[in-house]
# Entry
Amino acid sequence: MPATATPAEWLSARAALLAEEKALTRALDALAARRRALPRVLVEKEYVLTGPDGDTGLLELFEGRDQLIVYHFMFAPEWEAGCARCAAFLDQIGDLRHLRERGTAFAAVSRAPYPRILPFKAAGGWTVPWYSAHGSDFPYDFGASFAPSGSATPSPAVLAPTDPALSAALAAGEHVDRPAVSCFLRGGEQVFHTYSAYARGLDRLGSASTLLDLTALGRRDHLARPPS
# Structure
């Protein structure tokens, strides 16, 4: 339990903490600016994902917008249900209007086949666009999934997990999945990868602002419509 203090003592302690909070806010703003300055990488591979209208490509996930945030929802083909932590993350997303008004689409992608995703999505009450990457290299190429050594499925070493438990599972010949977010930017008919983040740290996301801070174009609040 916190210690008991007088109002004056509390105010003094709160003022000291406020200074640290302001410093952290400025540091996070500076970090977001550095993130926006990262170079972009052209996505040259044609990925086939499955959604409500059948097979589709990555470009279609943008819904005509400039940016796309993909949440790699851990749901392996052999699992009975998706990851509970990933489910909690989607619970926090809420209304996508605030992202869409700022030119940013959002979609969840899982390795499970689409017919397995549909009842799980319905049971959770989620309305976010959700696609299956079953049989696709997409989750592997962006560091959300890793195949055992010797598998034909690519697993970029640069994005290898550093968590000892995941590394041990991979060494034991198991498939490894981890929560991840990947951000993409569209230039005409071309798609560019701009950023990915994994596991620890994603727990701080959830609001439109924190998600947009991961993107190349940032929050772009000037695009949002004022409340009616």
The two ends are 44 Å apart (CA to CA).
